[in-house]
Write a structure and sequence with these properties.
Oligomer: single chain
Order of helices and strands: EHEEEE
Distance between the termini: 20 Å
Number of helices: 1
Helix content: 10-25%
Structural class: alpha+beta
Strand order of the largest sheet: 1-4-5
Radius of gyration: 17 Å
Shape: elongated
C-alpha cells in the first residue's frame, strides 16, 4: 500500500519532545544522537542529510491517501481527513 500524507509541518523545539524522539532513534537504530539547544546533534548522520546539528519536524496530518498496490488485495484506494 502506498500512502500520501498531507499536513502541516512545524519545527520541534521542546527539549522534552526532542529527548523522546532521540530515545527512539537510539533504541531502534543505535544512533548516538543528543539534544542540544533545541536541535539534534550527533557525531555522524546520513550522507545526504548534511552535517549536524539537525532540526526535527513534526507533521500533523490533514489528509491521508492510501493506494493499494497489490493485486491480491484488489483495486482500491481511500482517503482520511483529520
Amino acid at each position: 500500500m502506498h500512502l500520501v500524507l498531507e499536513g502541516l509541518a512545524a519545527k520541534v523545539t521542546d527539549d522534552a519532545v526532542l529527548e523522546r524522539a532521540a530515545d527512539a532513534y537510539r533504541a531502534k537504530y543505535g544512533w548516538p544522537v543528543t539534544v542540544e539547544g533545541g536541535l539534534f546533534n550527533a557525531p555522524y548522520g546520513a550522507p545526504t542529510a548534511g552535517l549536524p546539528p539537525y532540526r526535527l519536524y513534526e507533521v500533523r496530518p490533514v489528509t491521508v491517501f492510501a493506494f493499494v498496490n497489490d493485486d491480491a488485495l484488489g483495486a482500491s484506494s481511500t482517503r482520511w481527513r483529520f
